[in-house]
């Protein structure tokens, strides 16, 4: 279908928030991660977002976290890599943005301050500090986990100051898409939760920071492309088929679910690091059944192994 990363906006298109393969001893398998990044691009994804919550960045050492970014850049090129640079302090987040810049990345994704319930002035100062690294920033609004809500009015301020160029919207409130477009028409809206993909695509989203393409990239890319061009005859049946899996992206156990689906389709998902624990048997059965149903429907058939 061609690459959507045009107009010097590398956050457009399908960027996969990559799961991170861990060995049995829970060390990072960088070779497997490089292979995974290359496989995603071979299956039509536009790029990757390492060191997001799906990549378990909170439980990586600084050395591991830096090497994950470098591994992705070496595998698929820096223009396709938009690392998460979240940290408790603005200085540390800026250092991660500088690391991404020096590794050759073209943009970064940044949560608001998430060690406490930050007020608007703190949020503005945080993004201003990280913007000093010189890379374009995509904000990440996840009020569920961070307790800081980047409401449309605040996003418009951040964009107006030149601190952010896009926003990964994970609130689940699809009504916000229209308010953001009114207040900041040049701010790119990115789908942040897999299970509102169709609604936000129809509302004008320019990209998708995606979870389930880790397991089913080709079908997921087909869904996104159809949705953004308004081809509901293609998108809606595919969305209905995939939704039993896509909704796991908004569950507490999303990392474990996506890694299990990767294992089932023949990729390597593997274990998670504590404090995450394996899925309960009933959860595993639900994910397994939904994944096997998707495979039986041919939704993994287009994936280059």
From TrEMBL:
InterPro entries noted in UniProt: Aldolase_TIM, DapA-like
Active site: 140, 168
Keywords for this protein: Lyase
Sites where the protein binds pyruvate: 209
Record's keyword annotation contains Repeat: no
GO MF annotation: an example: 4-hydroxy-tetrahydrodipicolinate synthase activity
Pfam families, sorted: DHDPS
Protein family: Belongs to the DapA family.
PANTHER family, A to Z: DIHYDRODIPICOLINATE SYNTHASE
Name this protein carries in UniProt: Dihydrodipicolinate synthase family protein
Organism the protein comes from: Streptomyces aurantiacus
